[in-house]
TrEMBL record, chain A:
<comment type="pathway">
    <text>Amino-acid biosynthesis; L-leucine biosynthesis; L-leucine from 3-methyl-2-oxobutanoate: step 2/4.</text>
</comment>
<dbReference type="GO" id="GO:0019761">
    <property type="term" value="P:glucosinolate biosynthetic process"/>
</dbReference>
<dbReference type="InterPro" id="IPR050075">
    <property type="entry name" value="LeuD"/>
</dbReference>
<dbReference type="InterPro" id="IPR015928">
    <property type="entry name" value="Aconitase/3IPM_dehydase_swvl"/>
</dbReference>
<dbReference type="GO" id="GO:0009098">
    <property type="term" value="P:L-leucine biosynthetic process"/>
</dbReference>
<protein>
    <recommendedName>
        <fullName>3-isopropylmalate dehydratase</fullName>
        <ecNumber>4.2.1.33</ecNumber>
    </recommendedName>
</protein>
<comment type="subunit">
    <text>Heterodimer of the large LEUC/IIL1 subunit and the small LEUD (SSU1, SSU2 or SSU3) subunits.</text>
</comment>
<dbReference type="InterPro" id="IPR000573">
    <property type="entry name" value="AconitaseA/IPMdHydase_ssu_swvl"/>
</dbReference>
<keyword id="KW-0456">Lyase</keyword>
TrEMBL record, chain B:
<dbReference type="GO" id="GO:0051539">
    <property type="term" value="F:4 iron, 4 sulfur cluster binding"/>
</dbReference>
<dbReference type="InterPro" id="IPR036008">
    <property type="entry name" value="Aconitase_4Fe-4S_dom"/>
</dbReference>
<dbReference type="InterPro" id="IPR050067">
    <property type="entry name" value="IPM_dehydratase_rel_enz"/>
</dbReference>
<dbReference type="GO" id="GO:0009098">
    <property type="term" value="P:L-leucine biosynthetic process"/>
</dbReference>
<keyword id="KW-0004">4Fe-4S</keyword>
<dbReference type="InterPro" id="IPR006251">
    <property type="entry name" value="Homoacnase/IPMdehydase_lsu"/>
</dbReference>
<dbReference type="InterPro" id="IPR033941">
    <property type="entry name" value="IPMI_cat"/>
</dbReference>
<dbReference type="InterPro" id="IPR015931">
    <property type="entry name" value="Acnase/IPM_dHydase_lsu_aba_1/3"/>
</dbReference>
<keyword id="KW-0479">Metal-binding</keyword>
C-alpha cells in the first residue's frame, strides 16, 4: 500500500485553530450545508429510526424526464471507529443475537448493545462499551467488502440502533448495502482510497454530502477525502426508503388512499 | 495452478461510479451496455466483444439471468445496469427473519393487509429450532400466527421440539427443503430472507437473498426493484475425479476470484463437468456464490434438472438459456481433471489451500451438515469414505442432516458398494456421533445450547459455508471449510486430510 495517498487540499480558509469542541460543526463560507431537520412523510408513519437519517431538499423537486433529482446536502459529525477488510455480518452482530426482534424499543436497545460485539478480542476498543446501549462513535470507517456474509438486516439495524449514522467503506457487500438503504439505519458511503488506513478509532470526522459525492474531513489528522456519489440509491434514500420510493413512483398506493 | 484462463484483449471500462440497484427518477430506459471495472485485486479476463451493432434498437443476445429478469419484468430486453421492477414467483422466509419481514409488511401495508399471494410464500423454520432459547421458540410461534392469519399454504411448522419426527410438516434447512418440496423451477424468480437463497440457481432460476425490508415489500406487492447484474461465466470441463466434489470446485473458484470477486454479478456455471453433476452437487456449487459476493448463481437446466423438478412438482415452467451472442463480463475456464481437494483455511472462504498441504494441522472436531454439506449425497459421500477406510474417527464427528428427508435417507438408503449398509450404520461403526435433529444447527453458531456449537477455541473441519471469526460460536474457533470427503478423511486422522488417503 502506498505510504502517501492523494488527499484534497483544504477547500476552506486555513484555520490554524482546531474546533473548540468536537461537537461544533465545522463551518466555512465556501461550503453551504443546512442543519438537518426531521422529515417524516405525513402519509406513512415510519418508525422513529427514519428520523435519524434526514435529507432536506436543497433544490426543488424535479419532475419529468431529463433532469435528475439531487441528493440534498447532509452532514454527519462525530468520532470514527475504524475497521479493516471483510468485516462480515457475524462480526457486526453475532448470529445468536438474531433472535432479538428490534420492533420494540427495548429489544432495539438490546441489539444495539451488541453492535460489533463479534469482532475478535484483538479489537481492544469496543464499539459499544459492555453495559451500555449507545456507542460514542457515530461514523464507521472500513475497508473492502464491508458487511459480507448474511442477508440479515440485524446488521445495519444494530449499527443504527447503537448510534452509528454513516459508514464510509472502501467497498460493500451488496446485500448489506441494500439493507442499509432499505432500512435507512446507516448511510452507506464509499471512499475512493483506503481511508481506513489513514484514520484511527477516536479521530473526529465530518462527512458532508453533495450531489456529486461527498467529503470526509478528519479533523484529527487534518486530511480530507473524496467520497463517491451515492448513485442510483440516492433517489430511494432521498424518498425515505424503498416503500416511500415505491409510493412516489406509483408502484404502490399510499395508505391514506387505501 | 491447475486452472487456466482464457486471455483476451484488455477492455475499456467506464469509471466505477457505484450505482446500486435503484433507478434514476427519469424514466427507466434501456441503457447502453455498461461494463464495470473489475477490482484491482482480481486476475480477471474479459470475453471478446460480441456483435457490435450500433443501433440501440437491435435486439442483442442476453444471458440466462438477463432473460429471466426480462421476462419477470415483462420486458423484451434488459441489459446489465437496468433497474427494473420484477415479478416474484416464490418468496421464502424462515424463523429468524420471518417475524421481522411480516412486521414490516404490516407496518407499511396496514394491520389488516393481505399478502400478495398466499401460495407463493414458503415459510420454513430452520435456523434456531432445537433450543430452549425462548426468543427462538417465540419466533416460530410468531410465524405460526402470521401463516394462520394470511392462509399461507406452505408453512413447514414444528410444535414438538423434543422429537422432530413427531412433526409431519417440519422439513428443516430452508434451501434444501425448497428443492425437495418442488419450489425450485427453471426460469423463475425466487427470493429468500437468507443469503444462501442463491442455492436455487442450480435449477436455472434467478434466486438471491434479501433483507426483511425488501421481503416486507415483496409480501405486499409480489414485486421487487432489482438491478440487472452482469454475468461472469465459469466453464468447467473435464471428468470429475473420484475424490473431488462440488465443494472443492466452488472453494477453488472463490479462492481464485476472492470473497468480493463476484460482487453484484451473476456467476453462471456451465461445461461438461457441470453437466455431469447431480442436482445436489449443483446446489452445493451455487450455494456458495454469495461467499464470492455474487448476486446470484445459475446453471443451465437440462435433463438432470427436469427429472428432479418434474418428480416434485406439476407446476409448469419454462427453462431459459444464454444466447450464443450474449455478453459476459468475464470468462474463466477450469480443467477439472487437474484439480485437487481444497480447503478454506481460517478465517475466510477465499483462504484456499490444498488439503494435502494442511496435513499437519491438528483438528479437534468435524462437522458435517448445513445447506452446503448436509444433503443426502453429502452424507453418502462421507459414509462411502468411512466404509472404504474401515477405521474409527479420532475426533468427535457431528452429523446434522439438513432436512427430515435427509435424516430418513441416512437411516434408510443403502450406501453403494457397502454391502447393503446404510449411512447410519457406517457412521455408527466409525464412531461418529448419532445423526441429530435436522436444522441449520451450528453452522452459524446459534443459541448457546445448539448441538455441536463451537464453544471453545477449537479447530473444526466443516462442510459448511463460512469461516469468519466466531462463525460457529467461539471467536477464536478455527474453521476449515471442506468437502464431505475431506471432512470424513480428516475425522479419521485427527488432522486436515486429503481424501485420496482413503479413496484411491
Amino acid at each position: 500500500m502506498a505510504s502517501t495517498l492523494p488527499t484534497l487540499p483544504r477547500a476552506l480558509p486555513s484555520s490554524s485553530s482546531k474546533p473548540s469542541s468536537p461537537l461544533v460543526p465545522f463551518r466555512s463560507s465556501s461550503l453551504k450545508f443546512t442543519t438537518p431537520t426531521p422529515f417524516i412523510p405525513s402519509s406513512i408513519s415510519l418508525s422513529s429510526r427514519a428520523a435519524s437519517f434526514v435529507i432536506p431538499r436543497a433544490t426543488p423537486a424535479s419532475h419529468g424526464s431529463g433532469s435528475t433529482e439531487t441528493l440534498a446536502k447532509t452532514t454527519f459529525h462525530g468520532l470514527c471507529f475504524v475497521l479493516k477488510d471483510n468485516i462480515d455480518t457475524d462480526q457486526i452482530i453475532p448470529a445468536d443475537k438474531a433472535t432479538i426482534f428490534p420492533s420494540n424499543q427495548q429489544e432495539r436497545d438490546e441489539i444495539a448493545s451488541y453492535a460489533l460485539s463479534g469482532l475478535p478480542d484483538s479489537h481492544t476498543t469496543r464499539f459499544v462499551v459492555p453495559g451500555e446501549i449507545k456507542s460514542k462513535y457515530s461514523i464507521i470507517i472500513a475497508g473492502e467488502n464491508f458487511g459480507c456474509g448474511s442477508s440479515r438486516e440485524h446488521a445495519p439495524v444494530c449499527l443504527g440502533a447503537a448510534g452509528a449514522k454513516a459508514v464510509v467503506a472502501q467497498t460493500y457487500a451488496r446485500i448489506f448495502f441494500r439493507n442499509s438503504v432499505a432500512t435507512g439505519e446507516v448511510f452507506p458511503l464509499e471512499s475512493e482510497v483506503r481511508v481506513c488506513d489513514e484514520c484511527t478509532t477516536g479521530d473526529t470526522v465530518t462527512i458532508e454530502l453533495r450531489d456529486s459525492g461527498g467529503l470526509l474531513t478528519n479533523h484529527t489528522t487534518g486530511k480530507q477525502y473524496k467520497l463517491k456519489a451515492i448513485g442510483d440509491a440516492g433517489p430511494v434514500i432521498d424518498a425515505g426508503g424503498i416503500f416511500a420510493y415505491a409510493r412516489k413512483v406509483g408502484m404502490i398506493p399510499s395508505p391514506s388512499v387505501a | 495452478m491447475a486452472s487456466s484462463v482464457i486471455s483476451s484483449s484488455p477492455f475499456l471500462c467506464k469509471s466505477a461510479q457505484k450505482d446500486l440497484g435503484f433507478p434514476k427518477p427519469s424514466q427507466i430506459s434501456v441503457h447502453r451496455c455498461q461494463k464495470r471495472a473489475i477490482s484491482r485485486k482480481i486476475v480477471s479476463v474479459m470475453a471478446p466483444q460480441r456483435s457490435s451493432s450500433a443501433t440501440g434498437s437491435v435486439k442483442t443476445g442476453m444471458t440466462m439471468t438477463e432473460k429471466i429478469l426480462a421476462k419477470a419484468a415483462e420486458k423484451s430486453q434488459v441489459v446489465p445496469g437496468d433497474n427494473i421492477w420484477v415479478n416474484v414467483d416464490v418468496l421464502m422466509t424462515h424463523d429468524v427473519c420471518g417475524p421481522g419481514a411480516f412486521g414490516i409488511f404490516k407496518r407499511e401495508f396496514g394491520e389488516k393487509a393481505k399478502v400478495w399471494d398466499p401460495e407463493k410464500i414458503v415459510v420454513i423454520p430452520d435456523h434456531y429450532i432445537f433450543t430452549a432459547d425462548k426468543r427462538a421458540n417465540r419466533n416460530v410461534d410468531i410465524m405460526r400466527e402470521h401463516c394462520r392469519e394470511q392462509n399461507i399454504k406452505y408453512f413447514y411448522d414444528i410444535t414438538d421440539l423434543g422429537d422432530f419426527r413427531a412433526n409431519p410438516d417440519y422439513k428443516g434447512v430452508c434451501h434444501v427443503a425448497l428443492a425437495q418440496e418442488g419450489h425450485c423451477r427453471p426460469g423463475e424468480v425466487l427470493l429468500g430472507t437468507d443469503s444462501h437463497t442463491c442455492t436455487a440457481g442450480a435449477f436455472g432460476q434467478f434466486a438471491t437473498g434479501i433483507g426483511n425490508t425488501d421481503a416486507g415489500f415483496v409480501l405486499g406487492t409480489g414485486k421487487i426493484l432489482l438491478k440487472v447484474p452482469p454475468t461472469m461465466r465459469f466453464i468447467l470441463d473435464g471428468e470429475m475425479p473420484s475424490y473431488l466434489q462440488a465443494k472443492d470446485l466452488i472453494l477453488q473458484i472463490i479462492g481464485e476470484i476472492s470473497v468480493a470477486g463476484a460482487t453484484y454479478k451473476t456467476m453462471e456455471f456451465s461445461g461438461t463437468t457441470i453437466e455431469s453433476l447431480t442436482m445436489e452437487e449443483r446446489m452445493t456449487l451455487c450455494n456458495m456464490v454469495v461467499e464470492a459476493g455474487g448476486k446470484n448463481g445459475v446453471i443451465p437446466p437440462d435433463a438432470t434438472t427436469f427429472n428432479y423438478v418434474e418428480n416434485r412438482t406439476s407446476v409448469p415452467f419454462e427453462p431459459v438459456y444464454s444466447d450464443g451472442n450474449a455478453s459476459f463480463i468475464a470468462d474463466y475456464r477450469f480443467d477439472v481433471s487437474k484439480l485437487e481437494p481444497v480447503v478454506a483455511k481460517p478465517h475466510s472462504p477465499d483462504n484456499r489451500a490444498l488439503a494435502r498441504e494442511c496435513k499437519d494441522v491438528k483438528i479437534d472436531r468435524v462437522y458435517i451438515g448445513s445447506c452446503t454439506g448436509g444433503k443426502t449425497e453429502d452424507f453418502m459421500a462421507a459414509a462411502k469414505l468411512f466404509h472404504a477406510a474401515g477405521k474409527q474417527v479420532k475426533v468427535p464427528t457431528f452429523l446434522v442432516p439438513a432436512t427430515q428427508k435427509v435424516w430418513m435417507d441416512v437411516y434408510a438408503l443403502p450406501v453403494p458398494g457397502a454391502g447393503g449398509k446404510t449411512c447410519a450404520q457406517i457412521f455408527e461403526e466409525a464412531g461418529c456421533d448419532t445423526p441429530t435433529s435436522p436444522s441449520c444447527g451450528a453452522c452459524l453458531g446459534g443459541p448457546a445450547d445448539t448441538y455441536a456449537r463451537l464453544n471453545e477455541p477449537q479447530v473444526c473441519v466443516s462442510t459448511t459455508n463460512r469461516n469468519f471469526p466466531g462463525r460457529m460460536g467461539h471467536k477464536e474457533g478455527q474453521i476449515y471449510l471442506a468437502s464431505p470427503y475431506t471432512a470424513a478423511a480428516s475425522a479419521l486422522t485427527g488432522h486436515v486430510t486429503d481424501p485420496r488417503e482413503f479413496l484411491q
